[in-house]
């Protein structure tokens, strides 16, 4: 939601999103609109991915997905490299299917030094260190401590990303 807040606040961008569940807080506070995945692809000028890597999301941004995007759209992946098919992304960028990409993660990681993405003028690649701030690391430590305390007290993990793993 932080990205949506920044896009709305700094650039007055309209915010649309797709998720398995609706985010009523974002809809209320940011006037965000939930749309289907296909609508997200078709309508986004800047599509920023913030998801877990799961069987459901692995490779979801592929040739088919890129072909539904606007020719002037920018694909940003800050989540996990496996969410996008890198070969299909390269093709989409080279063929003008989409305009550009911003990658905080690659597929595979680490990226080969010979990867053509590194020399494309419409691509920006950053190291996956967005969480390397004092505030982010303090927040991560707090959440981990809350999980440990709650788990030993009740068997519940309040900040669980992959709940299906916990049940094993």
Question: Layout of helices and strands, plus pairs?
Answer:
Blueprint: H1 2-11, E1 16-17, H2 24-30, E2 33-34, H3 37-43, E3 46-49, H4 63-67, E4 74-77, H5 86-94, E5 100-103, E6 123-125, H6 134-154, H7 163-166
Quick rundown:
This protein is an alpha/beta fold and 168 residues long.
* SSE order: HEHEHEHEHEEHH
Give the proportion of residues in helices.
Answer: 25-40%
The appropriate CATH architecture of the largest domain is 3-Layer(aba) Sandwich
Strand order across the largest sheet: 3-4-5-6
When the domains are counted, the total is 3
Biggest sheet overview? 4 strands, parallel
- Count of DSSP-assigned helices: 7
Based on CA inertia axes, which overall geometry fits? globular
Strand content: 5-15%
Q: How many runs of DSSP E, i.e. beta strands?
A: 6
Report the span from N to C terminus. 30 Å
Radius of gyration: 18 Å
Note poorly predicted spans. none
Q: What is the fold named in CATH at topology level of the largest domain?
A: Rossmann fold
Structural class: alpha/beta
For the record, the CATH class of the largest domain is Alpha Beta
């Amino acid at each position: 939601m932080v990205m949506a807040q920044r896009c709305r606040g700094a650039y007055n961008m309209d915010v649309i999103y797709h998720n398995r569940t609706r985010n009523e807080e974002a809809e209320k506070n940011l006037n965000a609109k939930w749309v289907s995945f296909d609508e997200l692809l078709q309508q986004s000028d800047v599509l920023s991915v913030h998801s877990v890597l799961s069987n459901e999301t692995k490779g979801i941004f592929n040739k088919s997905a890129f072909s539904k995007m606007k020719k002037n759209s920018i694909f940003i992946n800050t989540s996990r490299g496996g969410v996008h098919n890198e070969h299909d992304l390269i093709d989409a960028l080279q063929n003008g299917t989409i305009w550009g990409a911003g990658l905080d993660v690659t597929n595979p990681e680490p990226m080969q030094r010979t990867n053509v993405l590194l020399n494309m003028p419409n691509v920006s690649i950053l190291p996956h260190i967005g969480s390397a701030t004092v505030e982010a690391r303090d927040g991560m430590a707090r959440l981990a401590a809350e999980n440990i305390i709650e788990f030993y007290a009740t068997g519940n993990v309040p900040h669980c990303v992959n709940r299906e793993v916990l049940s094993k």
